[in-house]
Amino acid sequence: MSDTLSSADAHSTDPAPQSSEGRRVSGVSIRLDGVTKRYPGQDRPAVDAVSLEIPAGETVMFVGPSGCGKTTLLKMLNRLIEPSSGTIHLGDEDVTKQDPDQLRRRIGYVIQAGGLFPHMTVGTNVGMVPRMLGWDKERVTARIDELLDLVGLDPEVYRDRYPKELSGGQQQRVGVARALAADPPVLLMDEPFGAVDPITRQRLQDELLRIQEELGKTIVFVTHDFDEAVKLGDRIVVFDVGARVVQYDTPEAILAEPAEEYVADFIGAGATLKQLTLTRVNSLELKPVTSASVGDDAAEALARARAAGDEYIVVLDRRGRPISWPTTAEVSRMQQIPATVDEKLPVVGLGSTLNDALDTMLAASQGGAVVIGRRDSLAGVVSIETIMDAIQRTRSEVAG
Amino acid sequence: MTAATGRPDTGERPDPLRRPEAEQSASRDRRDAASPVRARGGWRALVLQPVLVALGLLAYVVWRSTTTLSDTEARQLGAATLWDSVLRHLQLTVVAAVIVLLIAIPLGIALTRPALRRFTPLVIGLANVGQAAPAIGLFVLLADWLGFGFGTTIVALVVYSALPVLRNTMVGLQGVDARLVEAGRGMGMSGAAVLFRVELPLAVPVMLSGVRTALVLLVGTATLATFIAGGGLGVLINTGITLSLNSLLVSGAVLVALLALAIDWLGRVVEHVARPKGL
Questions:
Q1: DSSP sequence for A53-116
Q2: What is the pTM of this model?
């Protein structure tokens, strides 16, 4: 079966796709030509002559039922599994001819639960590939701190911890940091968020969107969760058995026009509601809010909040991350802005979907949420009314 | 946002948003709290064992210096003769152990590599025969074939004690999560790098416990060396039985037991120290 898909052709010759709106792109394109994997003793190939173009700097999601060959296809990209035939190009290089170990040092690889080495500290884990590439010690150390910071873990706190001292979500973050360590142009992710609870998964997804916004890697991401694919993917490949490409298109297009009955079945009945997963918090009008840093003078912050007509103040820690949102009434009883961390603070990322935002608010029993952007800094607040309006709008658009 | 934004409805509901993390950190706290206790318990056993050995030795020395012995006994139990027997016993144990390590660990590593995995049943079967065969029979048969003396004793000891090291090396390596190996290969580590930096360090605790088992086996089995002129503390026991001299018999038995306990203790200390951090 040959499935060179037209939807990707527009970008195939262009290293920096326009669809990214001038976003920084550090990835390279990936081209698969007739990639096949046969295992001895099986009459049907696990992966049957797949041809695909993955544009540079985009996140492409591989979805399909288990056993459809999507993971096999992913592992052929870094040659953990050798293709039986066909070629794979990263940028202009044919990787099927290269030394696999050298190749893999230039491709980030993230697996479920991070796959961290339990006998090495977080820092050592993250620094593995740079050390293998012969970076000097200072450069490796600096890179470790930079990456931990990127994935939202304080290097001072986490650098010297062992993986078992971290929660599942934190381990997964370190796994992403490790994969990004040598700044590879391509990131392969094999159901990375499959083993964490739904709320942590949502946060990890938000974080991946944020990181991708910043870095513009080419990401190939395997999942069996169509919602995850819609949320994270610039494009989605829907596979059937033998890694047959059934549809390769943007999430919007797949939801609007499933190519086959099979895709429609896979998407499921809630397709109209699934459109909500396409609307993101960053498309809503965020309300600015008065913020104050830990240790600021309470009276001064209160004055600013009253001048702006805000009912509450978002408190930021020393790294600029929101940690609580006391009301003006609460603040008026304080001398200084306290460093208390509100464990219930509802936080969503700019890349979160409306579903996520709604989930977060309901889970926290609050009617609004703090929105964070780059490096967890404050972007504004969003209220449940804004979200309900957006949902109404989307529904009427879909209906009419 | 309006006042309806429903600010501090500081939930009567338990907080589902943060709970997973909180639970995880709680279980982490329990673990953190538990591990020092475990370590302390471990250290307590580690301290108790040498104390018992020292007490045993002291008791033996007191008995030896207070009891009246016949000439034959006194000659056999003279300090220099005893010391020689102990050294000879240790020599048998250590030489055999080193050879076992040099053979069984590389063999165990080789047999867990995909290319050689199919030979595993064969080799494990052979090692099983080595250990299942009655030790005394093994010694005598080998002596019949290779002649009496130190060399033959070492061969017999090696055959007899290779299995625990071989088996634990394999079990330890097989126990390493396959996903970690894949993660290592996936980030560009060579097969050898994954073996030395990931698989072996993680297998060390299991491997060392196999080595300790082998050492204790060796100390005990080396008493049989006396039957094929290999020397060691077995000579005392054998002479004691043959000549009905209980003082010799008891001396040999007590010293072998103390030696075995002491070596077992050393093994435990090494296991404790060499255990990778973070496990």
A1: EE-TT-EEEEE--TTSSHHHHHHHHTTSS--SEEEEEETTEEGGGS-HHHHHTTEEEE-GGGG-
A2: 0.75
